Known about the structure:
With about 325 residues, the protein is an alpha/beta fold. It contains ten helices and 14 strands. β10, α9 (about 250-260) and β11 (about 270-275) form a beta-alpha-beta unit. α1 (about 10-25) crosses α3 and α4 packs parallel to α10.
Amino acid sequence: MKLNFGHQATKVKQLADSLAGMIEAGELKTGELLPSINVLSKQHTVSRDTVFKAFMDLKERGMIDSTPGKGYYVTGRLKNILLVLDEYSPFKDVLYNSFTQNLKGRYKVDLLFHQHNERLFNTIIRESAGRYNRYLITNIKYNELNPIIRKIDRSKLLLLDLGDFDKENYSYICQDFQEEFYKSLIRIKEKISHYKEFLFYTPEECRHPESSIEWFERFCTENDLSASIIRERKELNVQPGQAYIAFRQQDVVTIIKEAREKGLTCGKEFGLIAYNDTPLYEIIDQGITALSIDWVQMGKMAAEFVLNSQPVQITLPLRPIIRNSI
């Protein structure tokens, strides 16, 4: 059937997506030859170059291949997965490895980062809509679902990581930066109760939900702890008797470096808690205590969503991993 090309995407993308849909539906079977470039060019009233580029797109997706003198043929129903995360971090690496290791069968995973850039995020979603079998996406906003996400088929979408917004009945595997954060602090309050001051180090450029600060302050008030919020590097002044919590790995390193310059030992003269565990925290200064969801578990559950196509709505618990830093 001749395609009625719209204006929402290039003709190359529309033709490639149409052929991909036929492969997924079994209308074009494994090993079957595709119509030639000349035939498709005439059938859809497009240039031969447009058809060629559409074929190259499908080759990149692993759905077709070519044999000299015979033409292009269907290689199989390769499942194409789009994984969009906010930014690279060691614990996101753990998530990615767990996810890919638990996939079974013919899957190709494209990993992209939106870097908290809304224009980039919108471009990624707009250009990928309709091209993938499953979409696993970290929303760009903390307090609302980005509207462009609605362009993606709800049954094919899994929201990851961020939990503090209305997810509109989409499938999700998220974490809670509010009550779960508060509950984790409750679990370690005996470990930090002897410190003179509890400090939350969250520089302005740190892209962490501000709502965590409210629950941190609530915890400190209820447990008679002197609390401070540090928003700038120049305000950081590590002293004996203080306990710190930091969300980014680079901030954990900054605190440790300043403490060492003053001859302070982590876990003795001062305390330190990191958010989101990484393998590095097991060995730094004989172990850094972390509050973390299980990123390996998130990866496994994300793979199950892809494999089983079953809706899922889970908020993972945040648990303290006690080490020698407090």
